[in-house]
Amino acid sequence: MGVAAVDARPDLSPRDRLARVEQGFFVLGITALLCLAGAVTTDGFLTGGNVENLLRLSAAFGILAVGEAVVILAKGIDLSVAGVALGCAQATLAFMADGMSEWQAIALLAGVALVVGVVNGILVAYLEVPALFATLATGLLTIGGIDILLLDQNFYSLPASSAISELSSGSVLGVPRAIFVAGAVFVLAWLFVSYTVAGRLTRAMGDNFDTARSSGAPVRPLQVLGYVVSALLALLAGYMTVSVQGSVQTTVTSFDPLLFTALTVTVIGGVSLSGGRGTILGVLAGALFVGVLNNLLILRGLSSPLQDLVRGGVLIAAIALDAWLHPRDEETARSDEL
Amino acid sequence: MKTKAFSREIDAFPLTGGSRRDRLAPFRTLSELFGQRWMEGAVPLGLAVLLSVLVTATTPVGPGDAPLILDEATEKGLLAIGLTVVLVGGGIDLSIGSIVGLASLGAMVASRAWNWPMALVVPAAILAGSALGAVNGFLIARVNMRPFITTLVTLVAFGGAAAALQSAYSFQLGVPEQDIVWDFLGAGAVAGVPTGWVVFAVVLIVVHVGLTRSRWGWWIAAVGSDRRSARRNGIPVARVVFCTYVLSGALAGTAGLLTAARLGRTDPDVGQGWELVALTAVVLGGVSLKGGRGSVLRATVGIVVVQVIQQGTIATGAEGSSYTVILAAALLLFAVLDLKWGKYRQRTAEKLRIDPGRITLGPLVDVTEPGTVWTVNDRLTDASPIGLGKIEGAEDCAVDREGNMYCGDRRGWVWRFAGPDDTEGEIFARTGGLPLGHAWDHERRLLVAVGGMGVYRIHADGEPELVADKVRRSPFSLHDDSGLRAVDDLDVTPDGAIFVSDFSTRTNAAEYMVELVESRPNGRVVRVDPDGSTEVVISHHVFPNGICTAHDGRSILVASTGLCRVDRLWIAGPKQGQLEPVLENLPGHPDNINRSSDGNYWLPFVSMRTPMSDLLTKYPAVRRRMTQEVPLDSWVVPQLNVSCVMKFNDRGEVLGVMWDATLRNHPMVTAVKEHAGHLYLCGVSNNRVGRLRLESDEVGPIDPASVPGTTTAPSLAVVDR
Amino acid sequence: MKKKLTALLTAAATAMTLAGCTVDRGGSSAGGGAGGGKQTFGRNVQLFDAHKKTHEAMKGKRIAFVPILYKGYNLTLNWGSTMERAFGNLGADFRVYDPNFDTDKMVKIINDLVARRAVDVLILHNPDVGVLTKQIDAAERAGIHTVVVNMVSSRLGDAFIGVDSVHAAEDITRRAVQDCEKRGAPKRMAIIDGPGNDAASLMWSKGVHHVLDPAGYEVVTTAHTQWQNALAQQAAASITQQQKNNICAYMVAYDLNAIAVGDAVADAAERGVIRPDSIGVYTMAADTRWCDALRAGKVTASAAYDVQGVGEAAVVTAQQLVQGGAPAGSTHTVAYVSHTVVDRSNVDDTTIACYKGR
């Protein structure tokens, strides 16, 4: 890690210097190392087909992670994304199976996602329910409610000629469409966070909520906006997932792997759970890292429980690093900061 | 004469002229209810229990399901207990579901695949749970990671480990191992009670006692309430947090063992989603998500409610995910409730605290009309001042035989002004409260009713001694009315008992404004016997403010500021224990009563009635609104701004009235004491005590300072002519 | 405090010792259910009387069907609709309880039904060899007949009805071996089953091994999927990526998973990881969606079995148990329905293939 030499100020400890480095570059470096290791140990890893496939599979959780990052930047967290992504995708396929036109179904479910986002926002911003519990509950309510009200099959397949299936096939300007869409989301999110007033205020709010409020920022509407963005991106990610898989099974699980992957990407990308810190570049780096890791785990033939263990270990390491780089201040730490 | 114990206290409520309904103060009762500490968990818990009653009433769930519900509740209840401890410590543990799975599968693998003896499997399962909990604890307490996200990760990671374990031993797992210990844990009983229930009960009792009665439990609550304070008080925060996770893990391990024994499930999904059930249960049980507050008993009720709901969804055959949906909705609802109820409870209690009542006063005598006994004069104006500029607010005073004058002071002191002319002032005693009423006992020691503190006796060296500061708390009262806090006057009877008026059981002596605006029968008269025991003799009186033993020693007179009247309480003779009116419908609000030397009584008014104030007493709602919307100093209440003293006799005839119409020297008079042909004028906001020389025809042979009926011949002090 | 706790624990321990610990191993046979009644028919029967008696015997009998998953799942819907028709005609009270793939909930449903004695015959679909052991035991003691369909439990109950999984696996594996020989592919296959501790998976693996081991084939790996398509697809993708063309077939225990595996294989072929049509996908049972995939060329062949027949057989067995009058748990039967190998050439001519939900 030659990065420490970049910062010339002598009075900083190595930890502080490391904390100041953009974690995106750091993670990109590790990803490159991982790729190198993969190329040496696993044949068939560094082929054009595999890399393209890897990126295509990473598109869905990359998009999900962007939404999650926007919320976490504002010191919230959104656990409902997996529920929204899968539930809405399932419901869309169910409507299509019942003969509704595709765009109508998508518009309807976009409405549902919007409502979930707004409800999350209101619960967190106006009713001041801890975000963890509010979004945990709304996520379960979304997927459970959709299951009870809208689904009557265990298995839905995606019609081959639908717009959703087009999401992950074909290409735009020579780039596979899934990668193009994900890229567009990353660029837009980067512009939003870095150059718009709302984006900057969101980060300010995550850094110090009280100061942002005192300075007159519309903190509550901004929080709602964050959750709405997250829910809509979750919808897109859900379509992307279905598009890649070609079908969905509709058994409800409490914590879906999709949510877990999105959180991993966000945290590894340096978006600190204490809010206000992190960049979209970091999220991109995190998505690439997780994509490469997943691909390598599969190529090495690890069973899915073992993959869970490895991913869990990686995430623990990332959170531990975050906690080490940006420790809680014992003087200001509150007991209810979960 | 010996005062017999009153068989029952006299309820003075009828004096207000109110109906039975006026006795109730619904807002205040609500406020008191909200103010109770146990209300915090009671409302969520009550709602939760109501929910389960609803479920049992509307679904086929019945008594037959009770064993099933309890079986489930024991296993998940162990998780709920662990989770409660973690939550009280300010953390959260989501990984318990996977710990259950891992412990359950691990125990079965150990028994079925590795053929471990059960003597090893049982402790190993619990230890394994603790070890997994220790992983959480290490990451959270030592590495300082956030509990929610950390345990979310370990939930997935431990779940992965459980699935890997199951996958590796799936074949051997399918073959059940017969063992007496498995059967005992799963289907056995201790004294007829299923083993699981016994285990749960023991854990529940131990953890409850530990959490509420031990240093360990207090530390956890302290850390959960405020980490910083806990750390500064020397509590090892990290160690305490670590321990909560280990405990939670150990209980999850135990639950895993029990479920393995009872159901023998060998699929990797054992325990999946249990964390959500436990979380909902504890939130339903009113355990705060914010840390520091929660009880495992309430969490247990929560888990039973959740299980009843689940049984309801199962018995009605409701669709697959409806239970999840109900749980999520309940979690959300009760999380909001926890938040909002906690926030608004105190606020509402405070808002509803003042609840004015209705009283009925008779027609108003017009004191401004010339030519009556009430006609305004300036007799009090020229009283010579004592302690001018030294005294601040002497409500009452007492003069000893030597002519030394003792009076109270707002700052808690008792002054002594020596001499025949009372010129030399010194601080005689410091009470720490608000000295209000003064009287002499049989041994000529000074008795002081100290507002906010109780009845004190002050010895010759100025050392105060507590006589009484509490009575028995009345039964069925939400409000603790045992303290004698608003004591404002007292007098001694021939048998040595002290009668004290306590103007309010609710407000402190300094908050008399609240009492005046409320006009509710909150006051009482208390008898303090020579042995220190106390008894309420008149209850539900409106602002009793003056106490005076009658000249014959057989009754006491009680003045009520709120009701503008004076009553006689017979303490001896044929009418003993009866209350009869002496003066009714006075034109002002009376204060302390004292005997005069000519066998009559002195009674000052603190304030005069007006048509406006009379009107207000009839409209409690207006006064209520006033207290909520107008600052205290703008309240329309009887203002203490009149100097008027009247003399009346035992038959209730008004003999004469003296005024300071200018209000220049005495903005108010709250008590008068007669001594040696002089009248001492006290006022709770005056900067002096006035000394007024009386006309000789107004002075009689009695010493008003001595207890009636006790002294030898009425030793007339030297009358200074 | 410690003293108090010690005293408490001592007291508890003493109480335990004094009271003695007991283990309830059954024995208390109570009769709330139908078991133990008398036989409906004797040696001879009157022609019209039989109709009446049969209806009388079944009238009001409460029959519950608890599959692993019901809503939207063709296999169990097929059984359920058969049962609903048959029991409906007989005037019995038939009801389906849907645990929605949640074993925890399934156990609770059965416990609840047994505890409330709300049922006379339980028709169960066991997710896991070990899991329902205690429930079947409890049902028997409560006098409730149990019929287990398709996935045998280590506790048998009154009857098991289902496909002869081992035999079906052997048949389809023989077909797979034939295909591989024909292509001259490497002698390597992969098994993709369910959770691995359920009867179907165990017997499937057993049957596959019965054929492959003597034929000199190697089972590269056995992947467990929990019946989830996503996991099956992932497993197939990873195995394909690893093995490339060094594998000749996937033996998938579950037809719907086979579709996902077929997708993964087709995908790999499209991306040039493997040669097209070089890896076969074989399975057991033939859902109509599987038939669609077959026609689309994604999967190769299946040991289709008579799904409708399982439902019918369960109905018949339930009637037999009720009319026979023997106490619950007194007889034990294992009965199999027919199966045959279907592929593209005969799928449209085989009645037992391409079953639907209704």
From TrEMBL, chain B:
<feature type="region of interest" description="Disordered">
    <location>
        <begin position="699"/>
        <end position="721"/>
    </location>
</feature>
<keyword id="KW-0472">Membrane</keyword>
<feature type="transmembrane region" description="Helical">
    <location>
        <begin position="116"/>
        <end position="141"/>
    </location>
</feature>
<protein>
    <submittedName>
        <fullName>ABC transporter permease</fullName>
    </submittedName>
</protein>
<dbReference type="Pfam" id="PF02653">
    <property type="entry name" value="BPD_transp_2"/>
</dbReference>
<dbReference type="InterPro" id="IPR001851">
    <property type="entry name" value="ABC_transp_permease"/>
</dbReference>
<feature type="transmembrane region" description="Helical">
    <location>
        <begin position="78"/>
        <end position="110"/>
    </location>
</feature>
<dbReference type="InterPro" id="IPR011042">
    <property type="entry name" value="6-blade_b-propeller_TolB-like"/>
</dbReference>
<feature type="transmembrane region" description="Helical">
    <location>
        <begin position="320"/>
        <end position="337"/>
    </location>
</feature>
<dbReference type="InterPro" id="IPR018119">
    <property type="entry name" value="Strictosidine_synth_cons-reg"/>
</dbReference>
<dbReference type="Pfam" id="PF03088">
    <property type="entry name" value="Str_synth"/>
</dbReference>
<feature type="transmembrane region" description="Helical">
    <location>
        <begin position="237"/>
        <end position="261"/>
    </location>
</feature>
<keyword id="KW-1003">Cell membrane</keyword>
<keyword id="KW-1133">Transmembrane helix</keyword>
<keyword id="KW-0812">Transmembrane</keyword>
<feature type="transmembrane region" description="Helical">
    <location>
        <begin position="273"/>
        <end position="289"/>
    </location>
</feature>
<feature type="domain" description="Strictosidine synthase conserved region">
    <location>
        <begin position="488"/>
        <end position="573"/>
    </location>
</feature>
<feature type="transmembrane region" description="Helical">
    <location>
        <begin position="148"/>
        <end position="169"/>
    </location>
</feature>
<feature type="transmembrane region" description="Helical">
    <location>
        <begin position="189"/>
        <end position="211"/>
    </location>
</feature>
<dbReference type="Pfam" id="PF20067">
    <property type="entry name" value="SSL_N"/>
</dbReference>
UniProtKB/TrEMBL annotation, chain C:
<feature type="signal peptide">
    <location>
        <begin position="1"/>
        <end position="19"/>
    </location>
</feature>
<feature type="domain" description="Periplasmic binding protein">
    <location>
        <begin position="79"/>
        <end position="325"/>
    </location>
</feature>
<protein>
    <submittedName>
        <fullName>Sugar ABC transporter substrate-binding protein</fullName>
    </submittedName>
</protein>
<dbReference type="InterPro" id="IPR025997">
    <property type="entry name" value="SBP_2_dom"/>
</dbReference>
<dbReference type="InterPro" id="IPR028082">
    <property type="entry name" value="Peripla_BP_I"/>
</dbReference>
<dbReference type="Pfam" id="PF13407">
    <property type="entry name" value="Peripla_BP_4"/>
</dbReference>
<keyword id="KW-0732">Signal</keyword>
<comment type="similarity">
    <text>Belongs to the bacterial solute-binding protein 2 family.</text>
</comment>
